[in-house]
Design brief:
alpha/beta, 6-stranded parallel beta sheet, 5-stranded mixed barrel, globular, binds S-adenosyl-L-homocysteine, about 475 residues, about 20% strand, binds FE3-S4 cluster, binds iron/sulfur cluster
């Protein structure tokens, strides 16, 4: 506790020192210094970027919508190869920008930076980068920038792992009415295809009192919906001094006045407890939506993936949830082309999709990640086989999604109004509990409020509706 407080105080001092530097630079330029953060990857990274922007704004930077900024930060992802390729694409363009604006500073952080071969490549091919840090020390941004300004050379600071959680740093939320809240960091599951445990370190939970304090704070600022974030939220609390379950945490979050909606991501099927299902069933605020990554429907492959459940167990779990929470919507993550995937394995995946009837799914082509056990597995699936399977999965998902979408016709749903519709004047867009969007008549003043909306038309993956009173 003592150590944590000292760290955030220390960082505020760096922010103060950098503020003076930023002020001096703006006077020289005759305009404010600008910053921009480009984020790749999952909600964890989105949340980290909000914290990084919070630090930059405290230092006096003004956020802009373009990469032509005085400080440009890339928060990277490495879960699949194409995430890496994207970063290198951007860096090629940044090189030209920096030639035009030599005072521009470039920062790289996030999951990709935790891989030593990436750092080597950047030092060699992109020497114009100013600071590089990883996933464990984002709280040090001001300190690293200060070191960069003082030394005039590239700063690289990557930690292999950490047990430290630094609280009480600034954050610049992207939306005024909803936000992510970290409840835990890291992952201990080591699914055989996945790089996340190597780049995000060991699992550690935030203390419930810190989580609740943060949620109370954002709710007092107008937030209506929170998304509790962790790689495996079902194992929340195990590392705490006073252990607590995820379901118990949810019950505490539910008590916060003014909070309307609770979502969470991601629950691992192997650890999903009856207690959690019960708490969801009883709750007024937890959205009736379960994102439950299956990865594959084949018991044989699930074993090779180190997922610790079988096809039957997944199906039973889904059924149990449906029975206790009628109308619950299901979404999932699916990988096509995991090493050794046969036609029969793939058909098992299709079978689960059909039986559960997912509302939607994130579907991925298996991507080989260096250092993971699956990368060394023989019988990698040829791309042409994946190319043949992938559209079959998408076609089936389109059917299950459309079928679920139709079920809501005529129903009155509670929605959170998120934005004015850019295509049609006088319309707003709201989000249903199942995460789908509905467009209906409304105005800008309604953004961030809840409304009851009758679903009048379904469009396969979104709806049209009309607001009703009450
Ligand atoms: N912790 C979450 C997922 C984090 S990564 C969970 O366990 O569900 C998000 C998704 O990326 C995973 O669910 C998986 O479907 C996909 N993914 C991870 N590694 C991958 C790889 N090497 N190739 C393709 N997809 C992958
Ligand atoms: Fe990756 Fe598995 Fe951890 Fe999810 S649970 S982050 S898929 S290792
Ligand atoms: Fe997320 Fe990508 Fe990292 S999915 S945890 S940002 S590797």
């Amino acid at each position: 506790m003592e150590r944590t407080r000292t760290e955030s105080e220390k960082q505020y001092e760096y922010m103060e020192q950098m503020k003076q530097w930023v002020e001096k630079q703006s006077q020289k330029l005759g305009r404010p210094l600008t910053c921009h953060c480009t984020t790749f990857g999952c909600q964890m990274n989105e949340k980290d970027s909000e914290k990084l922007l919070g630090i930059l704004e405290t230092m006096g930077y003004q956020e802009i919508d373009s990469e032509e900024a005085d400080f440009l930060l890339f928060n990277t992802c490495t879960v699949r190869e194409n995430a890496n390729t994207k970063l290198y694409g951007h860096l090629g363009q940044v090189k030209k920008m920096k030639e035009r604006n030599p005072h521009m500073m470039i920062g790289l952080c996030g999951c990709m930076m935790q891989e030593p071969h990436v750092i080597e490549k950047i030092k060699e091919s992109y020497p114009f980068v100013d600071i590089i840090f990883g996933t464990h020390n984002i709280f040090k941004l001001a300190e690293l920038l200060k070191n960069r300004v003082d030394s005039g050379s590239m700063i690289v600071d990557i930690w292999k792992d950490t047990d430290q959680i630094v609280e009480d740093l600034p954050s610049d939320r992207k939306f005024s009415f909803k936000c992510g809240v970290n409840i835990m960091y890291g992952c201990n599951n080591f699914c055989s295809y996945c790089i996340v445990p190597y780049v995000r370190g060991r699992e550690r939970s935030r203390k419930p009192e810190d989580i609740l304090k943060e949620i109370r704070q954002v709710v007092s600022e107008g937030v209506k919906e929170v998304m509790l974030l962790g790689q495996n939220v079902n194992s929340y609390g195990k590392t705490l001094e006073n252990p607590m379950t995820f379901a118990q945490l949810l019950k505490e979050v539910e008590k916060i006045d003014g909070l309307e909606r609770i979502r969470f991501m991601t629950p691992h099927p192997k650890d999903l407890s009856d207690e959690l299902i019960e708490v969801m069933a009883e709750s007024d605020k937890i959205c009736s939506h379960m994102h439950l990554p299956m990865q594959s429907g084949s018991t044989r492959l699930l074993k090779k993936m180190n997922r610790h459940y079988t096809k039957e167990q997944y199906l039973e779990l889904a059924q149990k949830i449906k029975d206790r929470i009628p109308g619950v919507s299901f979404t999932t993550d699916i990988i096509v082309g995991f090493p050794g995937e046969t036609e029969e394995d793939f058909e098992d995946t299709l079978d689960v999709v059909k039986k559960v009837g997912f509302d939607s799914a994130f579907t991925y082509v298996y991507s080989k990640r260096t250092g993971t056990p699956a990368a060394a597995m023989e019988d990698q699936v040829p791309p042409e086989v994946v190319k043949e399977r992938f559209p079959r999965l998408l076609a089936l998902l389109k059917e299950t999604a459309a079928e679920n979408c139709r079920k809501k016709l005529g129903a009155v749903e509670r929605v959170l109004i998120e934005e004015v519709n850019t295509h049609e004047e006088g319309m707003v867009t709201g989000r249903l509990e199942n995460n789908l969007l509905v467009h209906f008549k409304g105005n800008r003043d309604q953004i961030g409020t809840m409304a009851n909306v009758r679903i009048t038309e379904e469009k396969g993956f979104y709806y049209m509706g009309e607001q009703v009173n009450g």
